[in-house]
Amino acid sequence: MTEVFNFSAGPAMMPKEVLQRVQAELLDWESLGTSVMEVSHRGANFMALAKRSIEDLRKLFNVPENYQILFAQGGARGQFAAIPMNLLSENGKALYLTSGHWSGAAAKEARLFGDIDEINILTEQDGKTGVKELDFSDIADQYDYVHYCPNETISGVEIFDVPNVGNTTLIADMSSNILSRPIDISKFGMIYAGAQKNMGPAGITLIIIRDDLIGKARRSTPSVWNYQILRDHDSMFNTPPTFAWYLCSLVFENLLANGGLESVELKNRAKAELLYQYIDQSPFYRNNIAEANRSLMNVTFTTGNDELNAKFVSEANAAGLRALKGHKVLGGMRASIYNAMPIAGVEALIAFMDKFAQENQ
Which positions are annotated as binding pyridoxal 5'-phosphate (predicted)? Predict the structure, then answer.
């Protein structure tokens, strides 16, 4: 059988060694004679797992002591509503920096709860999409918070510089680049991420939030999305998605054992550079993102011909290169090369791209 490489944008592939461990202990976790899915979230074993996962994540991200690590349900979309309910004052305003589909969706949801200003930070030059200057320090102090999405999964736009918002709270939706490289958590009031790209399966959401931002939720905020209630109940106000939490804990452990985020970033940059270099030298394919904002996680490309694109996706799938169809919003192709994608997968993709180009010139 041809080795399969899964380029899905999410749910995405997970580290093989993590899945092998899950397979080995699925029916008998920690010698309990039961699966981790069958034990109480309040039992000593799972409580220890939860504690250990938070300690490991704190080490990985170098999370300061004045930040809480919380887990919630509802995915990142749930947080699109939870954030304004928790952090937007009754008569306050928030600023949303939009750079694509997901940052735009977050702004649209936030408008249900208050006064939202929106600034499109994309720019077009020579047919390439990039990001404008990110200094908002002269206007940010009128807002309760500023929100942005550092990596737009659909278009493949990544923002590597942290926006300057002065002393205003900065919030980042890191769903598609979480744990892909080190970041300075202290520059953010809050970051959040759905798990299904770099952490685990869909169904659990990570929140890292500064202590002083907790306890401001409006009275109408549902308890399951109230950050103070989540904190006070150790993310277990209701039964958490225990299997997803367990898988995340194994991923955190695996990342620490393999050199942490510094090592991960080196691997991710090597994979992305290899693929972008091939696209740039090819007369058959093109990428439409400015070099400074090319995503390390989601590489978009096209032949410029819809029929050829469809043929490419079909033949790639038959060759064991799965989920390369671009999002319906954009079309073309998209190779999501998250942490778990080995460089061998990128090399296999390039070999196929070269063969396809020669056969379809």
Answer: 76-77, 102, 153, 173, 196, 238-239
Bridge-partner residues for 192, per DSSP? 173, 207
Catalytic residue among 102, 144, 245, 325: 102
| CA-wise closest residue to 326 among 317, 337, 336, 316 | 336
| Whole-number pLDDT of residue 19 | 97
Note if 102 is an active site residue: yes
Is 173 labeled as ligand-binding? Answer: yes
The fold of 260-359 is: Aspartate Aminotransferase, domain 1 (3.90.1150)
**For residues 250 and 40, is the Cβ–Cβ distance under 8 A?**
no
Q: Pick the catalytic residue: 29, 56, 197, 267? A: 197
Find all residues with CB under 8 Å of 200, minimum gap 6, and list them.
Answer: 14, 244, 245, 247, 248, 251
Asked if 44 and 52 count as a contact pair (C-beta separation under 8 A), the reply is no
Hey, where are the domains in the chain?
21-258, 260-359
Contact residues for 294 (Cβ-Cβ < 8 A; gap 6+): 156, 158, 272, 276, 287
Q: List per-block mean pLDDT (blocks of 10 residues) for the chain, which spans 361 residues.
A: 88 96 96 94 95 97 97 95 94 94 97 96 94 96 97 96 97 97 97 96 97 95 95 94 97 97 98 98 97 97 96 97 92 96 97 97 84
238 marked as part of a ligand binding site: yes
**Angle between helices 242-257 and 260-281 in degrees, nearest 10:** 90
Dist CA 223 CA 64 (whole Å): 26
User: Active-site residue among 29, 56, 144, 173?
Assistant: 173
The verdict on whether residue 294 carries a ligand-binding annotation is no
Domain 21-258 sits in CATH at: 3.40.640.10
How far apart (Å, rounded) are the C-alpha atoms in residues 313 and 255?
31
To the question of whether residue 29 is assigned a binding role by annotation, the answer is no
- Told to judge if 197 belongs to the known catalytic residues of this protein, a careful annotator would answer yes
The tokens for 22 are: 């899950």
Element (H, E) at 152: strand 151-152
| 225 belongs to an annotated ligand binding site | no
Residue 173 annotated to the active site: yes
Asked if residues 216 and 86 have their Cβ atoms less than 8 Å apart, the reply is yes
Length of the chain: 361
280's CB contacts (< 8 A; 6+ apart) are 287
